[in-house]
Amino acid sequence: MHQILNERVTLTFADHVAEVMLSRPDHHNGLDWAMIDGLLAAQQCLTQLAGLRVVVLSGDGDSFCAGLDMASIMSEAERLPTLLAPDEAGINPVQRLALGWREAGVPVVAGLHGHVYGGGLQIALGADIRILHPRARLALLEIDWGIIPDMAISVTGTGLRQDVLQELAISGRKVSGEEAYQLGLGSRLSDTPQEAARETAALIASRSPRAVAAARELFACSPDLAPRDRLALEAHLQQQLLAGAEQREAVSARMERRAPRFD
């Protein structure tokens, strides 16, 4: 399946993997209204894809995303209040640009290159795995406009070093992909991050969907629990997997030296 959601965002789906691509390469995929609308539509589309196991998030051209294109946004200034209007869940549209990937219920792998600035970095922080080009440039540039990062970074950044995020937020300093990796903002480095993201997604898609979901739940929930409750959750999730159909298939495939087949 290849679907053009609008002139800014495309979605492809094959072999249980969906790829959402930002496509405004002549502006380093800067976020204008059409890009925002397209990304929100992509998130909704992902929740309706039967058989989805992994999402790849990428950008066309020389960059992943250079953040808000303020000139384009201000060209429809009357829409600005809608960006900060929360829905029933208490999440507003700009926050959903980062948090909305979680609603797909599957791992999201971002391949990051070129400019990853402001809203672009905050969107990337909503991914489970971030693969960085060593020479990518990352920054939180909202301070340049006298504002703060507000795309749910207070939620997506909870597992990251708070001193690092605070420094970037109050200084606007740009860091290379290599430094960002050292600071814990990325999962690993690659000279071809988009291809690496696709390869990682294909590998995850070949694994037991129930085991992948359980691992995501374990690592998402554990930080908020006491040590004893973490261990209990770990054991509970494992018990739900043991001797299940997918676990039996994983064992059989391993013993028979073939690729597993998960429905």
From TrEMBL:
<dbReference type="InterPro" id="IPR018376">
    <property type="entry name" value="Enoyl-CoA_hyd/isom_CS"/>
</dbReference>
<protein>
    <submittedName>
        <fullName>Enoyl-CoA hydratase</fullName>
    </submittedName>
</protein>
<comment type="pathway">
    <text>Lipid metabolism; fatty acid beta-oxidation.</text>
</comment>
<dbReference type="InterPro" id="IPR029045">
    <property type="entry name" value="ClpP/crotonase-like_dom_sf"/>
</dbReference>
<comment type="similarity">
    <text>Belongs to the enoyl-CoA hydratase/isomerase family.</text>
</comment>
<keyword id="KW-0276">Fatty acid metabolism</keyword>
<keyword id="KW-0413">Isomerase</keyword>
<keyword id="KW-0443">Lipid metabolism</keyword>
<dbReference type="InterPro" id="IPR001753">
    <property type="entry name" value="Enoyl-CoA_hydra/iso"/>
</dbReference>
<dbReference type="Pfam" id="PF00378">
    <property type="entry name" value="ECH_1"/>
</dbReference>
<dbReference type="InterPro" id="IPR045002">
    <property type="entry name" value="Ech1-like"/>
</dbReference>
<dbReference type="InterPro" id="IPR014748">
    <property type="entry name" value="Enoyl-CoA_hydra_C"/>
</dbReference>
